[in-house]
Specification:
The structure is a homodimer. By secondary structure, the first copy, chain A, is mainly alpha-helical. The first copy, chain A, is built from five helices and two strands; from the N terminus they run E-H-H-E-H-H-H. The longest helix of chain A has 28 residues.
Chain lengths: 176, 176
Protein backbone atom coordinates (compact mmCIF):
# COMPACT_ATOMS: atom_id res chain seq x y z
CA UNK A 1 0.00 0.00 0.00
CA UNK A 2 1.27 3.46 -0.84
CA UNK A 3 1.16 5.54 2.37
CA UNK A 4 -0.08 9.16 2.30
CA UNK A 5 3.51 10.38 2.67
CA UNK A 6 4.22 9.26 -0.87
CA UNK A 7 3.37 11.85 -3.47
CA UNK A 8 3.59 10.23 -6.87
CA UNK A 9 3.69 13.60 -8.65
CA UNK A 10 5.29 14.15 -12.02
CA UNK A 11 8.13 11.91 -13.04
CA UNK A 12 10.95 13.56 -14.98
CA UNK A 13 10.06 14.24 -18.64
CA UNK A 14 10.97 11.34 -20.85
CA UNK A 15 10.11 12.51 -24.35
CA UNK A 16 12.56 15.39 -24.44
CA UNK A 17 15.48 13.58 -22.83
CA UNK A 18 16.80 14.74 -19.47
CA UNK A 19 16.10 18.29 -18.27
CA UNK A 20 19.08 20.70 -18.21
CA UNK A 21 21.59 20.30 -15.37
CA UNK A 22 20.29 23.41 -13.60
CA UNK A 23 16.87 21.81 -13.23
CA UNK A 24 18.33 18.45 -12.24
CA UNK A 25 20.27 20.11 -9.43
CA UNK A 26 17.06 21.89 -8.40
CA UNK A 27 15.32 18.51 -8.31
CA UNK A 28 18.14 17.07 -6.22
CA UNK A 29 17.94 19.94 -3.70
CA UNK A 30 14.17 19.56 -3.56
CA UNK A 31 14.53 15.83 -2.93
CA UNK A 32 17.05 16.38 -0.12
CA UNK A 33 14.74 18.90 1.57
CA UNK A 34 11.80 16.50 1.19
CA UNK A 35 13.81 13.60 2.62
CA UNK A 36 14.97 15.68 5.59
CA UNK A 37 11.43 16.81 6.46
CA UNK A 38 10.19 13.26 6.08
CA UNK A 39 12.86 11.87 8.42
CA UNK A 40 12.40 14.70 10.95
CA UNK A 41 8.66 14.13 11.13
CA UNK A 42 9.09 10.36 11.21
CA UNK A 43 11.62 10.55 14.06
CA UNK A 44 9.14 12.56 16.15
CA UNK A 45 6.61 9.75 15.80
CA UNK A 46 8.89 6.85 16.67
CA UNK A 47 9.20 5.69 20.28
CA UNK A 48 11.99 3.20 19.68
CA UNK A 49 15.08 5.09 20.81
CA UNK A 50 17.57 3.17 18.68
CA UNK A 51 15.55 3.66 15.53
CA UNK A 52 14.62 7.27 16.31
CA UNK A 53 18.30 8.17 16.67
CA UNK A 54 19.06 6.55 13.34
CA UNK A 55 16.26 8.45 11.61
CA UNK A 56 17.44 11.72 13.20
CA UNK A 57 20.93 10.96 11.95
CA UNK A 58 19.56 10.50 8.43
CA UNK A 59 17.74 13.84 8.67
CA UNK A 60 21.02 15.53 9.58
CA UNK A 61 22.79 13.86 6.67
CA UNK A 62 20.20 15.06 4.17
CA UNK A 63 20.57 18.58 5.54
CA UNK A 64 24.31 18.42 4.81
CA UNK A 65 23.61 17.14 1.31
CA UNK A 66 21.25 20.04 0.65
CA UNK A 67 23.96 22.49 1.72
CA UNK A 68 26.53 20.75 -0.45
CA UNK A 69 24.22 20.82 -3.48
CA UNK A 70 23.43 24.50 -2.92
CA UNK A 71 27.16 25.23 -2.98
CA UNK A 72 27.59 23.28 -6.20
CA UNK A 73 24.63 25.14 -7.68
CA UNK A 74 25.99 28.55 -6.62
CA UNK A 75 29.34 27.60 -8.09
CA UNK A 76 27.86 26.52 -11.43
CA UNK A 77 25.17 29.17 -11.74
CA UNK A 78 26.52 32.18 -9.84
CA UNK A 79 23.94 34.69 -8.66
CA UNK A 80 20.99 32.56 -9.79
CA UNK A 81 18.16 31.52 -7.53
CA UNK A 82 17.65 27.76 -7.30
CA UNK A 83 14.80 26.70 -9.59
CA UNK A 84 12.65 23.90 -8.20
CA UNK A 85 11.07 22.03 -11.10
CA UNK A 86 7.67 20.38 -10.72
CA UNK A 87 9.24 17.04 -11.60
CA UNK A 88 10.97 15.10 -8.90
CA UNK A 89 13.26 12.15 -8.47
CA UNK A 90 11.20 9.02 -7.97
CA UNK A 91 8.47 9.00 -5.32
CA UNK A 92 8.56 12.21 -3.33
CA UNK A 93 8.59 11.85 0.45
CA UNK A 94 6.16 14.07 2.36
CA UNK A 95 6.27 14.89 6.07
CA UNK A 96 4.55 12.34 8.31
CA UNK A 97 1.63 14.13 9.97
CA UNK A 98 -0.49 11.19 11.14
CA UNK A 99 -0.10 9.09 14.26
CA UNK A 100 1.58 5.81 13.44
CA UNK A 101 -0.66 3.01 14.64
CA UNK A 102 1.81 0.20 15.03
CA UNK A 103 5.00 -1.37 13.89
CA UNK A 104 3.60 -2.15 10.43
CA UNK A 105 3.18 1.59 9.75
CA UNK A 106 6.83 2.12 10.66
CA UNK A 107 7.93 -0.80 8.51
CA UNK A 108 6.01 0.54 5.49
CA UNK A 109 7.55 3.99 5.81
CA UNK A 110 11.07 2.59 6.21
CA UNK A 111 10.53 0.56 3.06
CA UNK A 112 9.51 3.65 1.11
CA UNK A 113 12.45 5.57 2.49
CA UNK A 114 14.71 2.75 1.24
CA UNK A 115 13.15 3.07 -2.19
CA UNK A 116 13.69 6.84 -2.18
CA UNK A 117 17.34 6.43 -1.13
CA UNK A 118 17.93 3.85 -3.85
CA UNK A 119 16.45 6.12 -6.51
CA UNK A 120 18.45 9.09 -5.23
CA UNK A 121 21.66 7.02 -5.39
CA UNK A 122 20.90 6.07 -8.99
CA UNK A 123 20.00 9.68 -9.84
CA UNK A 124 23.35 11.00 -8.59
CA UNK A 125 25.14 8.29 -10.56
CA UNK A 126 23.27 9.58 -13.64
CA UNK A 127 24.26 13.17 -12.82
CA UNK A 128 27.87 12.01 -12.58
CA UNK A 129 27.72 11.15 -16.27
CA UNK A 130 26.25 14.56 -17.13
CA UNK A 131 28.57 16.96 -15.31
CA UNK A 132 31.71 18.01 -17.08
CA UNK A 133 34.63 18.24 -14.66
CA UNK A 134 36.31 15.54 -12.59
CA UNK A 135 35.56 17.66 -9.51
CA UNK A 136 31.83 17.67 -10.13
CA UNK A 137 31.84 13.97 -11.01
CA UNK A 138 33.55 13.30 -7.70
CA UNK A 139 30.85 15.20 -5.81
CA UNK A 140 28.12 13.24 -7.55
CA UNK A 141 29.88 9.97 -6.68
CA UNK A 142 30.11 11.20 -3.09
CA UNK A 143 26.38 11.86 -2.95
CA UNK A 144 25.54 8.58 -4.69
CA UNK A 145 27.69 6.59 -2.26
CA UNK A 146 26.20 8.39 0.72
CA UNK A 147 22.67 7.52 -0.41
CA UNK A 148 23.71 3.88 -0.84
CA UNK A 149 25.05 4.10 2.70
CA UNK A 150 21.63 5.29 3.88
CA UNK A 151 19.91 2.61 1.87
CA UNK A 152 21.87 -0.20 3.53
CA UNK A 153 21.47 1.35 6.95
CA UNK A 154 17.70 1.45 6.51
CA UNK A 155 17.68 -2.03 5.01
CA UNK A 156 19.42 -3.35 8.12
CA UNK A 157 16.79 -1.81 10.43
CA UNK A 158 14.00 -2.96 8.14
CA UNK A 159 15.26 -6.53 8.34
CA UNK A 160 15.06 -6.55 12.15
CA UNK A 161 11.79 -4.64 12.33
CA UNK A 162 10.13 -7.46 10.38
CA UNK A 163 10.62 -9.58 13.49
CA UNK A 164 9.40 -7.11 16.04
CA UNK A 165 9.80 -9.38 19.05
CA UNK A 166 13.45 -9.93 18.27
CA UNK A 167 14.05 -6.25 17.60
CA UNK A 168 12.77 -5.51 21.08
CA UNK A 169 15.02 -8.15 22.63
CA UNK A 170 18.07 -7.00 20.75
CA UNK A 171 17.56 -3.28 21.11
CA UNK A 172 16.12 -3.17 24.63
CA UNK A 173 12.83 -1.57 23.63
CA UNK A 174 9.29 -1.94 24.85
CA UNK A 175 6.24 -2.75 22.72
CA UNK A 176 5.38 -0.26 19.92
CA UNK B 1 51.50 0.11 0.71
CA UNK B 2 50.16 -1.83 3.67
CA UNK B 3 50.15 0.51 6.68
CA UNK B 4 51.33 -0.73 10.12
CA UNK B 5 47.71 -0.81 11.32
CA UNK B 6 47.09 -3.82 9.10
CA UNK B 7 47.96 -7.11 10.69
CA UNK B 8 47.82 -9.79 8.03
CA UNK B 9 47.73 -12.57 10.64
CA UNK B 10 46.18 -15.96 10.02
CA UNK B 11 43.37 -16.21 7.51
CA UNK B 12 40.56 -18.64 8.38
CA UNK B 13 41.48 -22.29 7.82
CA UNK B 14 40.67 -23.43 4.32
CA UNK B 15 41.59 -27.11 4.29
CA UNK B 16 39.09 -28.18 6.92
CA UNK B 17 36.16 -26.13 5.70
CA UNK B 18 34.78 -23.35 7.87
CA UNK B 19 35.43 -23.40 11.64
CA UNK B 20 32.41 -24.15 13.87
CA UNK B 21 29.87 -21.39 14.40
CA UNK B 22 31.09 -20.74 17.94
CA UNK B 23 34.52 -19.81 16.62
CA UNK B 24 33.09 -17.80 13.75
CA UNK B 25 31.07 -15.72 16.20
CA UNK B 26 34.24 -15.28 18.28
CA UNK B 27 36.03 -14.05 15.16
CA UNK B 28 33.18 -11.66 14.42
CA UNK B 29 33.28 -10.23 17.96
CA UNK B 30 37.07 -9.90 17.73
CA UNK B 31 36.74 -8.10 14.40
CA UNK B 32 34.16 -5.66 15.79
CA UNK B 33 36.40 -4.86 18.77
CA UNK B 34 39.38 -4.38 16.44
CA UNK B 35 37.40 -2.13 14.13
CA UNK B 36 36.15 -0.02 17.04
CA UNK B 37 39.65 0.49 18.47
CA UNK B 38 40.94 1.32 15.03
CA UNK B 39 38.24 3.94 14.43
CA UNK B 40 38.61 5.41 17.94
CA UNK B 41 42.36 5.82 17.54
CA UNK B 42 41.99 7.13 13.99
CA UNK B 43 39.40 9.73 15.06
CA UNK B 44 41.80 11.08 17.70
CA UNK B 45 44.38 11.72 14.98
CA UNK B 46 42.14 13.45 12.47
CA UNK B 47 41.80 17.23 12.55
CA UNK B 48 39.05 17.45 9.95
CA UNK B 49 35.93 17.84 12.05
CA UNK B 50 33.50 16.45 9.49
CA UNK B 51 35.56 13.33 8.95
CA UNK B 52 36.41 12.90 12.64
CA UNK B 53 32.72 12.89 13.53
CA UNK B 54 32.03 10.27 10.89
CA UNK B 55 34.84 8.05 12.18
CA UNK B 56 33.59 8.47 15.76
CA UNK B 57 30.13 7.47 14.56
CA UNK B 58 31.58 4.32 13.00
CA UNK B 59 33.35 3.48 16.28
CA UNK B 60 30.02 3.74 18.11
CA UNK B 61 28.33 1.51 15.53
CA UNK B 62 30.96 -1.21 15.89
CA UNK B 63 30.50 -1.07 19.66
CA UNK B 64 26.79 -1.76 19.19
CA UNK B 65 27.55 -4.64 16.85
CA UNK B 66 29.91 -6.16 19.42
CA UNK B 67 27.14 -6.00 22.03
CA UNK B 68 24.63 -7.54 19.63
CA UNK B 69 27.00 -10.38 18.74
CA UNK B 70 27.73 -11.06 22.42
CA UNK B 71 23.98 -11.38 23.01
CA UNK B 72 23.66 -13.79 20.10
CA UNK B 73 26.62 -15.77 21.44
CA UNK B 74 25.19 -15.90 24.97
CA UNK B 75 21.88 -17.02 23.53
CA UNK B 76 23.44 -19.80 21.44
CA UNK B 77 26.10 -20.93 23.91
CA UNK B 78 24.67 -20.12 27.34
CA UNK B 79 27.20 -19.79 30.14
CA UNK B 80 30.21 -20.15 27.83
CA UNK B 81 33.02 -17.62 27.64
CA UNK B 82 33.56 -16.17 24.17
CA UNK B 83 36.47 -17.94 22.47
CA UNK B 84 38.61 -15.67 20.33
CA UNK B 85 40.30 -17.78 17.64
CA UNK B 86 43.72 -16.82 16.29
CA UNK B 87 42.21 -16.58 12.82
CA UNK B 88 40.45 -13.44 11.81
CA UNK B 89 38.18 -12.09 9.13
CA UNK B 90 40.29 -10.56 6.39
CA UNK B 91 42.95 -8.01 7.30
CA UNK B 92 42.76 -7.18 11.00
CA UNK B 93 42.67 -3.50 11.88
CA UNK B 94 45.02 -2.41 14.66
CA UNK B 95 44.82 0.84 16.66
CA UNK B 96 46.54 3.81 15.01
CA UNK B 97 49.41 4.82 17.31
CA UNK B 98 51.55 6.94 14.97
CA UNK B 99 51.14 10.58 14.01
CA UNK B 100 49.51 10.83 10.59
CA UNK B 101 51.78 12.93 8.39
CA UNK B 102 49.34 14.18 5.81
CA UNK B 103 46.20 13.57 3.90
CA UNK B 104 47.69 10.58 2.05
CA UNK B 105 48.06 8.71 5.35
CA UNK B 106 44.39 9.36 6.08
CA UNK B 107 43.37 8.26 2.60
CA UNK B 108 45.33 4.99 2.91
CA UNK B 109 43.72 4.16 6.24
CA UNK B 110 40.22 4.93 4.99
CA UNK B 111 40.87 2.65 2.04
CA UNK B 112 41.87 -0.21 4.34
CA UNK B 113 38.87 0.42 6.54
CA UNK B 114 36.68 0.14 3.42
CA UNK B 115 38.30 -3.18 2.64
CA UNK B 116 37.70 -4.42 6.19
CA UNK B 117 34.03 -3.33 6.06
CA UNK B 118 33.54 -5.07 2.72
CA UNK B 119 35.04 -8.31 4.03
CA UNK B 120 32.96 -8.09 7.21
CA UNK B 121 29.79 -7.61 5.13
CA UNK B 122 30.63 -10.70 3.07
CA UNK B 123 31.49 -12.64 6.22
CA UNK B 124 28.10 -11.96 7.81
CA UNK B 125 26.40 -12.95 4.57
CA UNK B 126 28.31 -16.25 4.81
CA UNK B 127 27.24 -16.67 8.45
CA UNK B 128 23.65 -16.11 7.35
CA UNK B 129 23.89 -19.33 5.33
CA UNK B 130 25.32 -21.21 8.31
CA UNK B 131 22.94 -20.32 11.13
CA UNK B 132 19.81 -22.39 11.48
CA UNK B 133 16.85 -20.21 12.42
CA UNK B 134 15.18 -17.40 10.52
CA UNK B 135 15.81 -15.18 13.55
CA UNK B 136 19.57 -15.71 13.43
CA UNK B 137 19.62 -15.34 9.65
CA UNK B 138 17.87 -12.01 10.06
CA UNK B 139 20.49 -10.82 12.55
CA UNK B 140 23.28 -11.78 10.17
CA UNK B 141 21.55 -9.91 7.33
CA UNK B 142 21.24 -6.93 9.66
CA UNK B 143 24.96 -6.97 10.40
CA UNK B 144 25.88 -7.51 6.76
CA UNK B 145 23.71 -4.61 5.63
CA UNK B 146 25.10 -2.36 8.35
CA UNK B 147 28.66 -3.10 7.22
CA UNK B 148 27.69 -2.33 3.63
CA UNK B 149 26.29 0.94 4.96
CA UNK B 150 29.67 1.71 6.54
CA UNK B 151 31.46 0.71 3.37
CA UNK B 152 29.51 3.17 1.23
CA UNK B 153 29.81 5.90 3.84
CA UNK B 154 33.59 5.51 3.86
CA UNK B 155 33.70 5.22 0.08
CA UNK B 156 31.92 8.58 -0.18
CA UNK B 157 34.47 10.28 2.08
CA UNK B 158 37.34 8.54 0.30
CA UNK B 159 36.12 9.88 -3.03
CA UNK B 160 36.23 13.48 -1.81
CA UNK B 161 39.49 13.08 0.13
CA UNK B 162 41.22 12.18 -3.14
CA UNK B 163 40.71 15.81 -4.15
CA UNK B 164 41.83 17.43 -0.95
CA UNK B 165 41.41 21.01 -2.12
CA UNK B 166 37.79 20.39 -2.98
CA UNK B 167 37.14 18.56 0.28
CA UNK B 168 38.35 21.64 2.13
CA UNK B 169 36.08 23.91 0.11
CA UNK B 170 33.05 21.71 0.54
CA UNK B 171 33.55 20.83 4.19
CA UNK B 172 34.92 24.17 5.47
CA UNK B 173 38.19 22.74 6.69
CA UNK B 174 41.73 24.07 6.81
CA UNK B 175 44.83 22.38 5.41
CA UNK B 176 45.67 18.92 6.83
Amino acid sequence: MVPPELEEGLPPRKDEGLPPLEELLGMAIKAEIGARKFYESLAERIDIQELREKIEWLAGEEKKHEELLRKIYANMFPGKEVVFPKEHIGPELQPVTRKLEGIQDVIDLIRWAMKAEEIAAQFYAKLEEMVDTEEKKRLMRYLSDMEWGHYYNLKAEYELLLDWEMYGQMMHVGPP
